[in-house]
Automatic annotation (TrEMBL):
Protein name per the record: DNA 5'-3' helicase
PANTHER family listed in its UniProt record: T7-LIKE MITOCHONDRIAL DNA HELICASE (PTHR12873), TWINKLE MTDNA HELICASE (PTHR12873:SF0)
GO terms, biological process: mitochondrial DNA replication
Catalytic activity: ATP + H2O = ADP + phosphate + H(+)
GO molecular function: 5'-3' DNA helicase activity; ATP binding; hydrolase activity; lipid binding; single-stranded DNA binding
UniProt organism field: Riptortus pedestris (Bean bug)
High-level lineage: Eukaryota, Metazoa, Ecdysozoa, Arthropoda, Hexapoda
One family name in Pfam for this protein: AAA_25
Chief subcellular location: mitochondrion
Enzyme Commission designation: 5.6.2.3
Amino acid sequence: MYGNETVGYKTLKSDCSEESFPFKGAKGIVINSRQKKSALIVAKLLDFLALVSEPLEHDIICLPHGQQNLPQELLPLLEQYDNLILWFDNDSVSWGNAKMFTKKLSEGRCSLIRPLENQPAPYICLKNGYNIPTIVKSAQPVSHASIVTFANLREDVLTELYNSDKVSGVKWERFPALNGILKGHRRGELSILTGPTGSGKTTFMSEYSLDLACSSVTTLWGSFEIRNQRLAKTMMTQMFCAPLEKNLNKFNEWADKFERLPIYFMTFHGQQPLNTVMEAVEHATYVHDVAHVIIDNVQFMLGISSSEAGFLDRFSRQDALIASFRNFATTCNCHVTLVIHPRKERDGEQLTPNSIFGGAKAAQEADNVLIIQHKMSHASLKLRKYLQVAKNRFSGDLGIMPLEFDKEALSFRTKQK
């Protein structure tokens, strides 16, 4: 509803999955109004229905796009409330999404249901006979963004302990080996991908980010080297594991499915001022609730080449970019992946974190360093390719993942045995 007007609807299927129409940019909410100045906000229709049956002193609201996005158009509808309580699933990803939404909704009036084992989503609470009004009363106010006490940290630590298996982040479907090393994709981190020229950095990052977007990780692509239409074509080919030009009769069907993914593209190409790019990134993160930003690649964005004169200038510009994105990732709780070319190395030498163009600052600031490596197999005389996790601040685990390229599907995905 938007005022008294119906502007969309949700469907609930027999397998408990749901769909929203329109699937993007809905301008209304599902609401059970009780004429209160406080509202309880959930992401799923099942949770909404579970709460409607409870004796609660709150209006009950279901967001149109779940945890994926909180459209700006909804904010005026929520201005009437003095207090807002957000109750999402009890996992670390949902917890991070809820905290992100409070920044839009004004943190001072927001409280959160913490994702503890005995405080799952409302529908599960109803099924298990939990006391829902008691759980609602346990909602904790959101603290000031720049000031915390141990009381706040204590609850966060407890949340992580209860969710030790979930706090590691969103898992990859196409790259299960990465789950074993990196454990998952987490908000607030800075990752760097490097590799030799022509090694497939953009193609790999396209599929890596597509995998996450298919798991509802809202993604913003900044492709400064190749055009967006070429990138989108690559991603669609990877999504459906088939070349588009050989399946033109399926293009509209596939395009409709691809369009539903939470992927946005910056329109920049070639060299751009850092401030201009950061302004666009911050705007997109606020408006579209972006969880993953990709910059491909840093040298193209800054207009830096390895032959450029003035080492100090180009290094200082790259250091400023890395510092800006490091601060953005932490402050906005958004994952940033920077694709950076390596400096010139001798033929046959394996790359290391110190091979990243621009010096040591990039590797020092990064939480994760991923390197596409080439190695000649003397037995078969074939060039083998693999992804090396050379730094992993979250768990410390390092390792490699073999990369086998399917030229038809433009895919590095791990084949099922």
